[in-house]
Amino acid sequence: MFTSINPATGETVATYPELTDAEVEKKVAAAHAAFAQWRTTDLATRTALLSAIADQFETNKQRLGEIATREMGKTLKSAVAEVEKCVSGFRYYAEHGPKLLEPVEVPLAKGTGTARWLPTGVVLAIMPWNFPYWQVVRFLAPCILAGNVGLLKHASLTQGCAQAIEEMVTAAGAPQGLFANLGIPSRRVAPLIEDDRIVAVTLTGSEGAGIKVAEAAGRALKKVVLELGGSDPFVVMPSADLDAAAKAAVTGRIQNAGQSCICAKRMIVHTDIYDAFLDKFAQGMRDAKVDDPMAEDTTMGPLSSVEQRDTVLDQVATAQEKGARLLMGAEKIDRPGAWMTPGVLVDVPLDDPVAQEELFGPVAMVFRAADIDEAIRIANDVPFGLGSSVWTNEPAEQERFVRDIEAGMTAINQILASVPEAPFGGVKRSGHGRELGPWGLHEFMNLKAVLSAPETAPKDAGSAATD
Q1: Which parts of the sequence belong to the Aldehyde dehydrogenase domain (predicted)?
Q2: Taking the model in full, what pTM does it have?
Q3: CB 377 within 8 A of CB 405
């Protein structure tokens, strides 16, 4: 049984049954059968379904947003914006899909060749609670376009969101079995990965979960895409617009209550502007309105759970024990639910374990850098490499950061955000593979080479070597 608890009140929202083995088998079998039909559908049929699903999300965006806010605490405004982003994701693949799947001519010395993208089968997605709709759509939209079929193992916190997604797909007219939510706990995932009817796995989650899924997929020799944790640097140089950078840093740190893989987590500021930036940033963090996530003027709601809130507070306490100074905030709010204030840590030793971890909550670490070389060293001095944000108006510095920061993504003079058109993913212990754009579409497709003999064979064809 899954229990959905509203983190703003501590009250139970709903309970959801755990599927039995027989129920899971029925859904896997239906998905396998659906692939046999869906793989041969024309692109017009696939893109029409994507557009229809987009329509369902758009029509129901307010209701879907309210479900997410009740289940995991993000502000209603941001939850509705997330649903709108899902609409754009479905529409992107509906509009551009046929172009992304066109065969590519392969020049050959003899004969003709093409490279074609073909579907592979049933893809299992293991998704987290922090963006309960968008994380799923990042896999689902390209999955449908590719001619594949999707199964979802969603987080236990957001089973209501998972059911709502399945409802939207069904209402759009999807064939039976094309997409299904599997209400099962994490301990029941490994047998699914081993199932021959499932051809690939994609996971967004923690480093620990990624290791377990990668091990299981490796034993089964199956393709896996991993989008894991991040401790993204937010670098500010003297040429930056300081007011804009400080304002963006606040938004980047407290959006979704700091519970985003690509939130700005480590502020790395050039020494010449360090004090001025810190004053502006800390004041912005103090000014954040932490209140009812359903209210229009709330900037930050509760964290997703009391357990998640307490994990963040424990990390802050550990950092202080190692010598870091808590400049402000990071305090538990005495009210029912998973509430805390935004916080700022300074003077964090670089070898402090907390400096090497992901702070998945609204607490920032601020570091001082003497020059661009030190800023890059600090940025890279973590095991993660997901995203980064750099603030400078010097073109040469921009190029240095793009070249030398070890990350899958770099935003220049803006907050990093995922968009349907661009590849999303990281390096190092932030995972491997990419979502979104043509790259995410092609991850779970068979790139087949098609080689055709020339119309007139050369005279020495009989003695030609073959491979």
Answers
A1: 2-450
A2: 0.95
A3: no
